[in-house]
Automatic annotation (TrEMBL):
It comes from Azonexus fungiphilus. This is DUF2917 family protein. InterPro entries: DUF2917.
Length: 112
């Protein structure tokens, strides 16, 4: 099992990307990217080299860095990724979840 970096108050998102899919990630919102399975191809516009990350590898991002373009690397096998959002980008989601799940909140009694 991959151990992901953990920032206080951050949220995670899991992605599966094939070699035909491409996502753009902003370092102002994303703190780290980890590969759980497969391989990921990571490109930063303006840089001369790309990164290929395999299972168990992760990349921590400086908040002032260039955006990343991320894709699966192997054809026929998607890359399973974990994206960790910065606490301030995830802040509104955490506040909403606390409000909805608090006693007396909208979802607090939904499962009873």
């Amino acid at each position: 099992m991959t151990e992901h970096p953990n920032l206080s108050g951050s949220l995670f998102c899991r992605l599966q990307l094939s070699s035909e899919q491409l996502v753009r990630l902003s370092p102002r919102r994303v703190a780290a990217l980890s590969v759980d399975d497969g391989r990921a191809w990571i490109t930063r516009p303006g840089e001369t080299t790309d990164l290929i990350l395999g299972p168990g590898q992760h990349l921590c991002l400086a908040a002032d860095g260039a955006p990343l373009l991320v894709s699966g690397f192997d054809s026929g096998r998607p890359a399973a990724l974990c994206v960790e959002f910065r606490a301030r980008a995830a802040d509104w989601r955490l506040r909403l979840a606390r409000r909805l799940l608090a006693p007396g909140g909208t979802l607090s009694g939904a499962w009873q």
